[in-house]
Amino acid sequence: MSASHEKPVFKNGMVRWVDDRLPVVTVMYNAIGPGHPTPKNLSYWWNFGSLAGLMLGLQIITGIVLAMHYNPSAAEAFNSVEHIMRDVNFGWFLRYAHANGASMFFIVVYIHIFRGLYYGSYKSPRELLWMLGVVILLCMMATAFMGYVLPWGQMSFWGAKVITGLFGAIPLVGEPLQIWLLGGFAPDNASLNRFFSLHFLLPFVIAAVIILHIWALHIPGSSNPTGVEVKSESDTVPFHPYYTAKDGFGLGVFLILYCLMLFFLPNALGHPDNYIPANPMSTPAHIVPEWYFWPFYAILRAFTADFFFIPAKLMGVLAMFSAILVWFFLPWLDNSPVRSGNYRPLFRKFFWFGLLPCVLVLGYCGGAPAEEPFVMISQIATAYYFLHFLVILPIVSSVEKPEPLPYSITESVLGSDDKATLASGN
Amino acid sequence: MAIQTMKTALLAFGLTVGLASGVGLASGPALAAGEEVDLINEHFHHEGPFGAFDKAAVQRGYQVFTTVCASCHGAKYLAFRNLGEIGYTEDQIKAMASQYTVTDGPNDDGEMFDRPAIASDYFPSPYPNEKAARAANGGAYPPDLSLITKAREHGTDYVYSLMVGYEEAPADVTIGEGMYYNAYFAGHQIGMPQPLYGDDVTYQDGSSSDIHQEAHDVVSFLHWLAEPKLEERKRTGIKAMIFLVIFSGIFYAYKRRVWADLH
User: Fold this and answer.
1) Residue B19: its chain A contacts at CB < 8 A?
2) A125 preceded by cis ω (within 30°)?
3) Beta carbons of A409 and A231 less than 8 angstroms apart
4) Does B103 reside within a domain?
5) Which of B119, B156, B202, B257 has the most CB atoms lying inside 10 A of its own CB?
6) Active centre residues of A (catalytic)
7) Cβ contact (<8 Å) for A40 and B262?
8) Do B128 and B194 belong together in one domain?
């Protein structure tokens, strides 16, 4: 039952021959096979890492085929997307799978991150693992933003204009930088071509960082809902078949949701204006990014007044990026020796009644027009967001009295010391 | 512990949703430019997970489109060959296409020339370019209708409402030069004169051609035009769902068996 760290012996002679010369099979065996001991108490919240990996794979596959039919020129981009939708065999499937896939990818990754936030997955010795995850999120955001520009609809164009305009807020170099990024004064052919090139490149960068992320994961192994580290082999089960089976079931449920969107509500998460070809002469009534950027968009727009010599726009840009950059410092902002929110009564209250509603409210305001009361609500929520990470979390972690931790994972699973002792054979 | 966490999570989520929707309701009118108008909720045959196009309605809608809309609006992604998908035969398509003239060329003398359209041609636009369209329509640009039902919020209901929403302007509203009052257009002033009055076409299948039927039919056609793979998409979706439910079931059973010795 327990995983062994010795080199596996393969029955198949061919596999053995290859593995002796290039031990790829051993690597897989130890990464996602029986050779990877995993805490036996992982809940379904731990399914989202493998789902995120799967989504990256699906996005790359659908994206590569779409790129075979797409034409990244300002004059033809919109037409070529309609060509894919109408004339390419199963082109509608590829495009809807890719567009909704981006949304599903973000849903999965946001749940994965909130799992990490609640269970303290960022704490020692997993700080680098966590920080690599934040890097992946940043790369994903850049990729998704540039991907949304490619159909060259109204929201593509105006979204590109607003987001690249953020760089214009940087003092001194802002404006030349913006022109350099776009290859012109406004989004045009040059911008579209480079966005396409980078949109194709970045997923492979993400894949490389994911390899580091998984590598860093395999040093301490997975965290778990108790936050108590693995103490003995009886706390673990081999990844395969236990978690391949559990991930497989989770995958099925996830794909049902994904396919419901893809086949029955393919445009529900998109903006109708993006079915209007890009028109530099006509500004849409409300320029909104895709839903997964809404919380950050709300933070950006929360800054409405200049502060002495600092323009509001610059503060908004800095706050928006800081909202994610603050996660890099999380391992040091949260000093509690206890990992899991399950044993942290005060932390738990601030997580469920503070941080989570705050982010959802920010998301709602980011999708709403920049009017009252949304601006004021965004300002309050933005203030609370930073308050949570920079003030509440450090204070909570020093004043809180954690609930008693189980001695081991096995004890937490079996409920009492007696049984745990029996089970571990001591 | 886990149950307590779940309860707390649900409570927090409920509170948030309640709060957010409260905010949304309180500020509903602020969302629209001017007042909020409820669109007419027209039922179309293509709605729902199993809904397919009503081909007779789509064909009638094509007749309305060619007779009325196409004098000002283009449909540049519509090729005559596509009409096979809504039930026309190859001979019918050839005959319908040949009524239109397209510019082809250059020929061996380097000249552009006009010829009757064939099945592989695209539906000709009424104006050579946007400037010409604006010049002919008092500065307003009649948009291409290929994607119109997807390019508007609640597109099918919106276009239907727009078609039947022309009214006498209320006494306190002043209508600009060359503008018309429409109950469902943002700001109520639209540059497009009322396109449908009823009996604008004589349906070959003998259906009533009152304004509601014409509007219903033309929207059915426009939605087919915007989303021609809708039926293929839903059919594939049903198969995918059946497969995935079985896939998940098998994996659930497998997972239960694998974990059984631990519980």
Assistant:
1) 357, 361
2) yes
3) yes
4) no
5) B156
6) 218, 222, 246-247, 290
7) yes
8) yes
Q: Of B9, B26, B31, which is closest to A369 when you measure between CB atoms?
A: B31
Whether A184 maps to a domain, the answer reads: yes
Does residue B208 sit in the same domain as residue B149?
Answer: yes
Q: Is B204 on the interface with A (CB under 8 A)?
A: no
Q: Residue A89 and residue A82: Cα distance in Å, rounded?
A: 12
B153-167 per-position pLDDT tens digit: 999 999 999 999 999
The model's confidence at residue A140, banded by pLDDT at 50, 70 and 90, is very high
Residue B257 has pLDDT above 80, yes or no: yes
Confidence of residue A6 (pLDDT cuts 50, 70, 90): low
B23 to chain A: which residues are within 8 Å by CB?
A: 364, 373-374, 377
How many domains does chain A contain in total?
1
Query: What is the share, in percent, of chain A residues with pLDDT greater than 90?
Result: 84
User: Do A252 and B12 count as a contact with CB atoms less than 8 A apart?
Assistant: no
Considering only CB atoms, B155 lies closest to which of A43, A266, A272, namely: A272
Which residue among B8, B241, B252 sits closest to A352, beta carbon to beta carbon?
Answer: B8
For B190-227, write each residue's pLDDT tens digit.
999 999 999 999 998 999 999 999 999 999 999 999 99
Mutant choice from B153, B232, B233, B235 vs A, greatest count of A C-beta within 10 A:
B233
Domain ranges, residue A74: 46-424
Q: Is residue B109 part of a domain?
A: no
| Three-state secondary-structure class, residue B190 | strand
- pLDDT recorded at residue A3: 44
- How much is the average pLDDT of B99-128? 95
CATH code assigned at A87: 1.20.810.10
Domain count, chain B: 2
Residue B201 sits in the same domain as residue B244: no
Nearest-neighbour CA in chain B from A273: distance (Å):
5
End-to-end CA distance of chain A: 18
Q: Where are the alpha helices (DSSP H) in A22-89?
A: 24-32, 48-69, 77-86
CA neighbours closer than 13 Å in the CB half-sphere of residue A1: 14
Contact A388, A355 (CB under 8 A): yes
